[in-house]
Amino acid sequence: MLDEMKISENVYAITNGKTIGNVAAYVLPTKIVVVDTGMNIPYLEAFREKIEKKEGKKVEQLILTHYHGDHIFGNQVFKDCEIIACNNVNERMKESLENEWTEEKLEEWKKSAEDPSALEGLEIVLPNKLFDDEFEITDNDFSIQIERTGGHTEGSTYTYSPNLKTLVAGDNLFVNRYPWGGDKTADPDKWIETLKKYLALDVEYYVAGHGPIAGTDEVQEFLDYILEVKELMQKMIADNKSEESILKKSNKIKYYPPTREESKQMTLKRWYQVWKEKS
């Protein structure tokens, strides 16, 4: 199990789809720090047990990149740890608990899951260590820098270890697949700024929110796509073209096919709304 997840001497990542959203782990000198928890509780329990046994260290901290269920529905596996998130993620999780993550909705998700046991006994665990925009974890000479950038969501956060040259992007990076950008707080301009920031750092391994481990080429490919959509949409907005015609033409820009066409349409519509408001 662990061998296929080891991407470097001190970094592991679950990118096989078993947890839906990717999960990463930094092995520091005295402890393990996990990023995101996906949505497969038994699988994550096994992962924690195996990595702690192999490395001879405990998972002490968990970092959340954003509030979407496919990245935080395994939090209960780490409820004994310090769970770190920006204030925005904490607020969004609380809102979702009240409005979206109802018992009925959670039951629907359980039934539709590929593995019916994946969400059995699900308990939503909120973060217990909050920050506004930046936070840092240090362990001897190692550090993990955490920054909220927005983009995919208003609270979207990445983690970066200069020592390990590894950046965990959450859903600000989708690799070999179409992105989901339809969140009501998504901001494509901040997304563009974030991807440029990633490329300016000394990174060997990018752990996306979905998809395989990436390098700079994949990040650049994704950035180029958003920039191409932006250029087209802004020109058509300036020319007073209709929303329908803008979305139709944007949809023809070549990129990876979406899992669901509806999701792609919602993503393009959200990006259009943001750029229309700014025009």
Entry keywords:
279 residues; Metallo-beta-lactamase, Chain A; seven-stranded mixed β-sheet; five-stranded mixed β-sheet
Q: How is this structure best described in words?
A:
- The protein has 279 residues and is α/β, with parallel strands linked by helices.
- The protein has one domain (3-216): Ribonuclease Z/Hydroxyacylglutathione hydrolase-like (Metallo-beta-lactamase, Chain A, 4-Layer Sandwich).
- It is built from eight helices and twelve strands.
- The chain has helices at 41-55, 69-72, 87-99, 103-112, 188-200, 216-238, 243-250, 261-278; strands at 6-8, 11-14, 23-27, 32-35, 59-63, 82-86, 129-131, 134-139, 142-148, 157-161, 166-174, 205-210.
- It has a seven-stranded mixed beta sheet. A five-stranded mixed beta sheet has the order 8-9-10-11-12, with helices on one face.
- β2 and β3 (23-27) form a beta hairpin.
- α5 (188-200) runs antiparallel to α6, α6 crosses α8 (261-278) and α7 packs across α8.
- The longest helix is centred in the C-terminal third of the chain and has 23 residues, at 216-238.
- The chain is globular and about 60 Å long.
- The N and C termini lie far apart (50 Å).
- The relative contact order is 0.12.
| Average pLDDT level | 97
Secondary-structure arrangement, i.e. CATH architecture: 4-Layer Sandwich
Say what the CATH topology is. Answer: Metallo-beta-lactamase, Chain A
The coarse overall form would be: globular
**The first-level CATH class name:** Alpha Beta
Task: Tell me which oligomeric state these chains represent.
Answer: single chain
Structural class: alpha/beta
Number of helices: 8
Regions with little confidence, pLDDT below 50 for 5+ residues: none
Q: Please list the strands of the largest sheet in the order they lie side by side.
A: 1-2-3-4-5-6-7
How many domains make up the 3D coordinates? 1
Give the CATH H-level superfamily.
Ribonuclease Z/Hydroxyacylglutathione hydrolase-like
